[in-house]
Design brief:
Elements: H1 33-36, E1 42-46, E2 50-52, H2 56-60, E3 69-71, E4 82-83, E5 91-92, E6 104-108, H3 119-124, H4 127-131, E7 141-143, E8 150-151, E9 163-165, H5 182-196, H6 200-210
């Protein structure tokens, strides 16, 4: 099945105000997806620190028109007080309601409840309001199996995970280089670099320039 990947970094959304209450550039821009889709059809939002171990089409096949959003409804207290340890973006790792629910979402962009998420509404809302789904009747949030958003370092290892989420830090950071499923992450990175014709060393140099 054809897949189109669209980064939601603020550098690609120059018309959208910069929210300074998060640790990444898509802390709130993920909620622009329905508007970017003209409130039609379906879309997937997926955090950039995830790795698919199963065909993305199988997740796409779980769409259910009864819901506005489908996600893994995590209920946990973090085992780590800090995340991204040893990296330039190291930060406190706070617990809050609905934590990581919004990190992988099937979005029914055509659902009437989604029309509340206009760019102006998203820009005026706090990340807490958005991430806790205070903008949505919670009966419209459908659940997904936890294998579709397995939190590395937070849950016990599971080899049947379909999507693994390096929420505490990707294996590209020194403190997480040998974490669960890190070998697959590094192998995937090498394959991706082969496709785009860039060596890992070149990729790292380019990243350092951007930093």
């Amino acid at each position: 099945m054809p897949v189109a990947i669209t980064p939601l970094t603020l550098s690609s959304l120059t018309w959208f105000p910069n929210h300074a209450d998060g640790t990444n550039a898509f802390i709130t821009s993920r909620y622009l997806v329905p508007a970017l889709q003209d409130f039609r059809g379906w879309a997937l939002f997926i955090d950039s620190d995830t790795l698919f171990r199963e065909d993305i089409a199988k997740l796409w096949g779980l769409r259910d028109d009864r819901y506005a959003v489908q996600c893994v409804r995590h209920e946990y207290t973090s085992k780590a007080r800090r995340k991204y340890r040893g990296s330039p973006i190291e930060a406190d790792n706070l617990d809050y309601p609905f934590k990581n629910w919004s990190s992988v979402m099937l979005l029914n962009c055509g659902h009437p409840a989604m029309r509340r998420l206009t760019p102006d509404y998203v820009a005026r809302s706090t990340s807490q309001h958005l991430h806790r789904f205070e903008w949505l009747d919670h009966s419209l949030i459908g659940g997904l199996c936890s294998t579709w958003n397995h939190l590395i370092g937070e849950y016990p290892r599971r080899d049947d995970a379909k999507l693994v989420h390096h929420t505490l830090g990707i294996p590209g950071f020194g403190n997480y280089v040998d974490c669960e499923h890190s070998r697959e992450w590094h192998q995937t990175l090498l394959r991706a670099n082969e496709v785009i014709g860039e060596s890992p060393a070149e990729m790292l140099r380019r990243a350092e320039v951007r930093a």
